[in-house]
Amino acid sequence: MSHAEDHEGTRRDFLYYATGGAAAVAGAAAVWPLVNQ
Fold first, then answer.
1. Is 2 helix (H, G, I), strand (E, B) or coil?
2. What secondary structure letter does DSSP report for 37?
């Protein structure tokens, strides 16, 4: 595995984690008004 391929894998992992985190925050923000009645 070359250094460029390893870097691309790391970047892809970061994008997956960032997207998952943003989805979790958006989901919590959408559910919060229903919970906080």
1. coil
2. -
Neighbours of 36 (CB within 10 A): 6
Q: Which 3 state secondary structure label does DSSP give 26?
A: helix
Q: What is the pTM of this model?
A: 0.64
Helix (H) or strand (E) holding 36: none
Tokens 């008004």, residue? 33
Q: Of 23, 27, 19, nearest to 35 (Cα)? A: 27
| Per-residue model confidence as pLDDT tens digits over 2-37 | 565 566 778 889 999 999 999 999 999 999 999 877
